[in-house]
Amino acid sequence: MSSLLASLKRFDAYPKMPDDFRVRTSSGAAISLLAGLFITALVASEFIYFLSTETNQELFVDTSRSEKMKINVDVVFHKMPCAYLSLDVMDISGQNELDVDHDLFKQRLTLEGKPIREMPETVEELGDQTEGAVHALKEMTEGLDPSRCESCYGAETKEQPCCNTCAEVQEAYRKKGWAFTNADGIAQCEREGWSQKMKEQANEGCRVYGKVEVSKVAGNVHIAPGKSFQQHSYHVHDLQQFGREALAKFNLTHTINNLSFGDAYPGQVNPLAGHSDDAVTPGSTMFQYFVKVVPTRYTDTSGKELHTNQYSVTMHQKQINHDQGQSGLPGVFFMYEISPIVVQLTRESHSFFHFLTDLCGIVGGVFTVAGMLDAFVYHGLRSLKKKQELGKL
Fold first, then answer.
1. Alpha carbon of 268 to those of 62, 100, 273, 336, 366: distances in Å?
2. 173 vs 75: CA distance, rounded Å
3. How far is 297 from 301, CA to CA, in rounded Å?
4. Tens digit of pLDDT for each residue in 328-344?
5. How far apart are CA 10 and CA 151, in angstroms?
6. Upper half-sphere CA count for residue 110 (Cβ side, 13 Å)
7. Which phi and psi angles does 90 have, rounded to 5°?
């Protein structure tokens, strides 16, 4: 056994010296302290790097063309009433959504930007709180027959033979391609006080927010005044209902709180978030945002994948002069195109074994360099001391 231990000693890469042969110096102590501080700083830096994550990017051809895309919108119009605005979605495939109201909301604002709290209509002691039941009971309290069939003023169709509300009359006109120029003489609108509501909201702002789902093809989302409708394959906004005086006063000054395509991922930057634009000439300003949408797949450190989008944008403001024959519609237009390339973002953490390897490199490297420096200083001082003793200095 003793012979085996003796033979193993030959493989000792760290031979020891007796303490009697060790020399401790003040310069060696200073270098050791500096080396210790340097190692501590490097280890702390390496530990912070180990705890952090990094994102790797790859590019692929996008093959998911059949999917839908969600557009999140949050735009504040500082001097435009909610009653004037409508949001439409159009794409190059011919699919149009006019005056979108599902998953989209309008909040009335004062000119100072404060929300106007509208009192909800209340119906006391109503067991069924559904919208249809509330509307039916409201009609009964106003002395109206829920089963009545009122006139659409010439816009009746087989699908819509009756118009019992002002909104239904406007919708019937829209389907016919007629302009709804005047609510006077239309019993439904007079009963609901439509003209009075338009006058009350004349000096207000509006926040339009929510989401819309579109096909993954090029198209546009626009928010503009007037009820929209299709007429002989043309997209038309009915502005005559506001009168010529109101047309000249349209002010589409706005702030974009958010415009995004899909769900957000950590670190995402939306170029239009917080962007504001002022209308130079009220009544004739067309704000155009040309958006290039880049499909993105984001994978976090746990492997969970999120399908979303990034985008870049170019802005343009156009002044429309109808007297000079220029065409256009005052409004805010987001024209988007879909990139055929998808960006793969993968969030990765650093390897623990890589961290240990770096620690060993730091400690070993600093101690080796410190030992070389200590040897140089020790032998240099010793040589100077000998020369001084011999009187050569």
1. 20, 27, 11, 19, 40
2. 28
3. 13
4. 788 899 999 999 999 99
5. 110
6. 5
7. -135, 145
pLDDT of residue 299: 92
Give the pLDDT score at 121. 42
Token pair, residue 29, equals 């102590």
Token pair for residue 80? 């435009």
C-alpha Rg value of the chain to the nearest Å: 37
pTM assigned to the model: 0.71
**What per-residue confidence (pLDDT) applies to 140?**
45
Q: Tell me the angle at which helices 26-51 and 352-389 cross, rounded to the nearest 10 degrees.
A: 160
Distances (CA, A) of 219 to 81, 88, 93, 216: 26, 11, 8, 9
Q: Dmax over Cα atoms in the chain, in whole Å?
A: 126
Q: 168: burial class by Cβ within 10 Å (0-12, 13-18, 19+)?
A: middle
Give yes or no for a contact between 79 and 253, defined as CB atoms under 8 angstroms apart: yes
Task: Please report, for residues 129, 276, 293, 367, the alpha-carbon distance to residue 300 in angstroms, rounded to integers and kept in the order given.
Answer: 43, 33, 21, 38
Distance of CA 8 to CAs 12, 137, 307, 309, 329, Å?
7, 100, 61, 64, 92
Cα separation of 66 and 54, whole Å?
A: 31
Q: How far apart are CA 226 and CA 349, in angstroms?
A: 52
Residue 102 has pLDDT above 50, yes or no: yes
Tell me the mean pLDDT in the region 309-337: 84
User: How many Cα atoms sit within 13 Å of 291 on the Cβ side?
Assistant: 28
